[in-house]
Amino acid sequence: MDSDRDRDPSRRRPQGEERRRRRESHGEHEKPERRRRGESRGEHAVYDQEGRRRKGHRATDSQGDLLPKPARRSRHQSDTEQELPNPRKARQSRRNSTTDGSGSRSRGSAPLSLDALAKLDKKNAKKAGGWGAYDYDDEYLREVREKEKNLEKDRVKEVRAEKKKENREEENRRRAGESDAAVQEEKARRRREERRKAAEIRKSQTEDELEKKRSANTEDEREERRRRRESKHTPSEAEERRERRRYEKQHRTEQKKRRVVSGPLAEEGGVDEEEYQYMMEKRGGAGSGPPTVFTEDELARKKKRKRIIIGVVSVLILLAIIIPVGVLLSKKSSGNNDPQSNPAATASEPRTSNLDGHDRNSVPDADRGGILDPWAWWDTQDFNVTYTNELVGGLPIIGLNSTWNDDVQANPSVPKLKDSFNYGKMPIRGVNVGGWLNLEPFITPSFFEKFGSKDNIVDEWTLLSKLGPAKSKDTLEKHYSSFISKQTFTDIRNAGMDHVRFPFGYWIVQIYDDDVYVPQVAWRYLLRGIEYCRQNGLRVNLDLHGAPGSQNGWNHSGRQGQINWLNGTDGDKNGQRTLDIHHKLSVFFAQDRYKNVVTMYGLVNEPRNVELDTQKVVAWTQKAIDQIRSDGIKGIIVFGDGFMGLDNWQGKLQGNDNLLLDVHQYVIFNTDQLKLKHRDKLNFACEAWTQQSKRSMDRTTGFGPTMCGEWSQADTDCTQYINNVATGTRWEGTFDTGNPSSSVLRPQCPLGTSQCSCNGANADPKDYSDQYKKFLLQFAVAQMDSFEAAWGWFYWTWETEQATQWSYRRGLAAGILPPKAYDRAWSCPADADALDNFDGLSELY
């Protein structure tokens, strides 16, 4: 930092000009080389008003002290070598060493005189090679020293003022402590009195028994937690953990004995572990230093923090109780009376215990984390986890056991699996497991209702697009693992059924292009589900529910919107892709292990022929049949009616053996049927659908072999999301598709007025009237009777989160389905006049 004299030209010393004239008179002109060497050493060059260089001043520090001049060194000398000793620096060091701990000088020390400083400076200048960097006069030196002296005085004043301030504060604290002592004593006395009264009240209680009970419960809980933790470790690891716990317990006991607490805190009955740790930190660790007496403010802060923590924990516990109760009540209001847990709720822990004892290194690095790696699966129960990369038809067999047993009978009405099922003479009584291997919003609304209208999450495609690949896989595999379980198939058997229809999307085999579906993860769950069917004597109907490009544009095909299967720019390509999917599937299920259990093979679910070229659909169907037969499938092949009407299939595809026409019957999607009164709906099921089945079974009026692959007992379209996400109902006249030609904006309940309401249909089944339960039961049985006039039926569906009238399991629990599907106490009367009138049943819902 330059001095004031350097910054003010008017204060430059006149002696410098006189010396220059004297040097010029003696020929002592400064050489350019010397000037450059001086500047390179860090000397400051100064020029006069005429632009001539004069010898500069040395740089000074913030207090006016001159900085030492760099020592000269040879070009071979290292930068790290020590500089020449500097007298001024040594003097400053001596001056600093005379200060006390507070920074002020001790008495008896005094600065050097001005003459002594001048002599030292001149001596140093000669050693440094001349006066080049020490060109200043006595007046300037005196000014610098005066500035230094003033700065020192200011510093001493500040130190003294700070010390006085500290003394005053210490005195104030001492006085406050004396006044607080009386207050603390009074508080302590009151607390002692309160504790005495409380002790008298508790005297009548058996404190020892309560304490023993609490201790026993605590020890039991600790032992259970310890046992669970140690079960995850080897015996040596468990022993090590037990030894460590014994040491920690002993250490805690010793620490408690060494606790030293302040008087006020002891009056409160001691300290908890958190407060003790806080005190130890204040003392610098347990057992080190004298005990610390805490002020009332510190104790108050600690207590306040403890109360806040207790309050937060209490609120969380209350929320943990209130929220599940609220959810349960909400589910009940939507028709969920089931005592079991929500089937869509995924397990919090993976089920992989049967991996114990298997070698993780048996899986090659190339297959780690993929579908062939059991250690990457969420659920391995009832799977064979021995690694294999064997494929059949390009599909993995990992997870399958090498042996199976077909000597199983579902119920007395049907043969064992090893014996042939006499289709066409024995009625099929089955159920779908829809919404499991491909999502459907009304079956599992919990996946969709968490999003807003702006998200536009309406099907599996948009849901997975929102979740992203990693979360999609995790979410869906947990759903596959829990929504349908081993118990499901036991319950289906106990309900008196003999067949199960498995809907799935093409992504169970592979994905294409920009598909967001989770590929192949559902495959092993399909195989496990088939094995569960085998164990219960249930036969299987495979159903390709979603084809590449979407065969109908509905959400259960995987992607709602356009129909790009056999339609549009990529229609033919998607048709071929569907054939490729079937080739892999048919080769796989042509194995001997499936010939008795997979007896029905579906081509594609609900192709929307009314929006497609029917001739292309028929040609594709024949091509698929030929391919599947050549791949070795000998069972029943199923194709959909495409909403063309059963009579219109007369004369088509009739040259194929073991080909079955599949029709899906619902009264709720057709406004003419929806607005029928309860008795008329029942009569329609008994009469119209029975006659329709018989006509279709007659090759002269229909195709021939016919069955109903989907139906339900719902008599309204009030179920949440049954008409797509965020779409209203025909029943109430709020069905708005955005297209005037397809929207239904006038109420379609039998009364056809604004009084039409979905409240009754969506009520909890326990609130159903006896008349309504009677109707629902008879409506279900009437459909069973009608469809058994053909080859039989599959109810849609077994499980839902909350829609009772669409869930066979929930319908059984509500008493609106027969306990045994093959043993029904009611049947359609021969005369429609014998039907109940249901006069007391409201037609508003």
From TrEMBL:
Residue ranges with Low complexity bias: 95-113
GO biological process, one term: glucan catabolic process
Domain Glycoside hydrolase family: 480-718
Transmembrane intervals: 308-329
Major location (coarse): membrane
Membrane topology reported for the UniProt record: Single-pass type II membrane protein
Gene3D superfamilies named among the record's database cross-references: Glycosidases
Chain positions covered by the region annotation Disordered: 1-113, 147-272, 332-364
Subcellular location: Cell membrane
Annotated catalysed reactions: Successive hydrolysis of beta-D-glucose units from the non-reducing ends of (1->3)-beta-D-glucans, releasing alpha-glucose
EC numbers for this chain: 3.2.1.58
Biased composition (Basic and acidic residues): 1-33, 39-51, 147-188, 195-219, 232-253
MF terms (GO), sorted A to Z: glucan exo-1,3-beta-glucosidase activity
Feature: compositional bias, Polar residues: 332-355
GO CC terms: cell surface; extracellular region; plasma membrane
Keywords: Cell membrane, Cell wall biogenesis/degradation, Glycoprotein, Glycosidase, Hydrolase, Membrane, Signal-anchor, Transmembrane, Transmembrane helix
Cited PANTHER family: GLUCAN 1,3-BETA-GLUCOSIDASE 2 (PTHR31297:SF34), GLUCAN ENDO-1,6-BETA-GLUCOSIDASE B (PTHR31297)
Family: Belongs to the glycosyl hydrolase 5 (cellulase A) family.
Function: Glucosidase involved in the degradation of cellulosic biomass. Active on lichenan.
Stated name of the protein: glucan 1,3-beta-glucosidase
Species name: Clathrospora elynae
